[in-house]
Amino acid sequence: MDDEREDPLPHLHRSKKMVEDKDRPGFFKDYHRAVRKAISNDQFNEFSKLKTNDDRIRFCFSLPAIHDIDIKPYFRGKSEKEALEKKEAGNKCFGRKNNLEALRLYSQAVVKAPVPSEESADPKKMTMYAICLANRSAALYHLREYHYCVKDIDEALEHHYPKELKYKLYKRKARLLSHMKQHVEARDAYRQALKWLDWAKMEREKRIEHQTDIQKWLKMYETGKVVKNWDIPECYIEHPPVIPELTGGRNERFLSASKKIDIHYDNNMGRYAVASEDIEPGDVLVTEQPFASVLNREEFGSHCQKCFKTTKAPIPCKKCSSVLFCSVECRQSSYFHTIECPILDLLVGSGMSINCFLALRLVTQKPVSYFLDMKEKLNEEDLKEITNNKEVYDPSDFMRLYNLVCHSQFRTAEDLFHRCVMIVFLIKALKKTKYFDGKGSSSGDKINDVELFIGSLLLRFLQIVQFNAHEVSEFYLMSPRSLDGSKNETLGAAIYPTLALFNHSCHSAQVRYFSGQQVITKAIRNIRKGEIVPENYGQSFPSKNKIQRKAELADRYWFECNCEACQNDWPMYKDMDTSTMRFKCHKCHGPLNVNTEQLLNPFIKCEKCGDQTNILSTLKNLQNTEQTFKGACKEMETYNLEKAEALLIENLKQLEACLYPPYRDYHLTQEAYMKVCLCQGNIRIKQPKTEE
């Protein structure tokens, strides 16, 4: 390995962070380095003078070294042998009534089993997938996961489940639907069970027994005497996170934001959010679906590619065994995976960053015809004019995504070249899929106008993602209904065109949490009408000092933070002095700096207005807030989150009425409130270990 001091291209490190995944090495690093070293200084100077993305992509495609890579479809396919092994292992666990382990093994079998299609030559030889689903439905039934059990039965029946066994599935489905009070559907399922019983291979006495049982249930339905008290226990009903209503109602212009939010523009700050009304802790400010999202590679085996939901009974891709979906509906609506499927493991193996995956997803989630239809609209727009006019800002509008900042004018030639090499690699990979569908060139080392246009979009998207993407997360609990050891974990990344307009402060005004991919933000402090409503880009003053925060923000987002916490160099949480407080003047609300340990006179003169404030009542109120906080903590310990949230909001309001931050108890209350909010979104509970 070369000595770091002798690296001939040390200025590439910044772009590497955005293009390459430092935690997942791959071949792209060497590919890029070889291309960069192969071009002369004159060639690179020529590249640096290019002004458009089209010209940059065309230039890179003309380099001989850029084609010294053999790109082929590469993905994890199906294996009936592996599926059979997992199914048989699952059968053994099911026989021992270890249903949880059986579910895990059956799910692995479902993912590995070849999925039959309409073109399957011999349906009799394509039953493994359906059999694995049917077996899994039995495990789900005993685990009382009725919703997933019915879904598995339906999927098995759709995919060549053996005719002689179909009556079993229909009987199981009918019984489940009776539990779920879907009586019409249950009756129809019993009718199907009776129909398919004729195909069953069994002795006459056994057949008559099944017929009698099914006919008994059908008669009960026909006479209205069906048992109606079979309710699914509450804990076994699927409850997705609730999407709260926006406080004050939906903004008529910015559809994902509350009426309490407005968006302004100036030449220095760009677009930013402002309070159009007073905002209080607990106010819901934004609820927004992403324009595009991508799951972390580490979550492929546990979460749905489409909606990011945890997959209790995963549905596989029909071609590969690399990804999962939570339902057939999510699989059917994932157009992007039909494109990415044959090259997915190639992309993962390249070591490209999640930013690159997200930029690619912005393209692959729509057919090439969609972008060709949009081509004439893709002119640079005046962001000030967009913000100041009364046009509706719809986050699903492609132009809102397209016009997010990318700062191309500030990029170095090295940065742009690094990204261009990545885009050439992605175009070459897309040419191995059906994405261009006859509109692309057949030659791997040539690029036509359609491919060039998509490459230009990819290059723009890769720059947009750097400044506008957000992490999508879930809250991880070590045990049910307990916050001990809980933590927030990243699931993936997404772009929210409205949330992207909010500027950063190291003293954030809101907390983000997620329902699937949908983001929800709530205020965690008071913001007066006319004040900026910031969010946080990952750099928070209680946990990092000013030098660290400013350096990381400048490196990733290219701005120097001048928020209140940075201007006044607020101490980190561990360094906050509890003896020094900033009280509020009773008249003008100006800050009163007081050392409570040396307090002799409770009347403090305000330097701003000259009036005196008696802080004794404020000190008494602070004692009350301590009791309120302790009460909230007790509610959190018992997982009574609704009461805890109400107490914490009350506490934040009481503290803000008399104190200015930074104040230790104030930020402790904010942290507790944010934890309660995270519990209202995506939650994953650590699974108990199963016995082999």
From TrEMBL:
GO terms for molecular function: histone deacetylase binding; N-methyltransferase activity; protein methyltransferase activity; S-adenosylmethionine-dependent methyltransferase activity. Residues 259-538 form the SET domain. Pfam families: SET. GO terms for cellular component: cytoplasm; nucleus. Gene3D superfamilies: 1.10.220.160, 6.10.140.2220, SET domain (2.170.270.10), Tetratricopeptide repeat domain (1.25.40.10). It comes from Scylla paramamosain (Mud crab). GO terms for biological process: methylation. This is SET domain-containing protein. SUPFAM superfamilies: HIT/MYND zinc finger-like (SSF144232), SET domain (SSF82199), TPR-like (SSF48452). Keywords: Methyltransferase, S-adenosyl-L-methionine, Transferase.
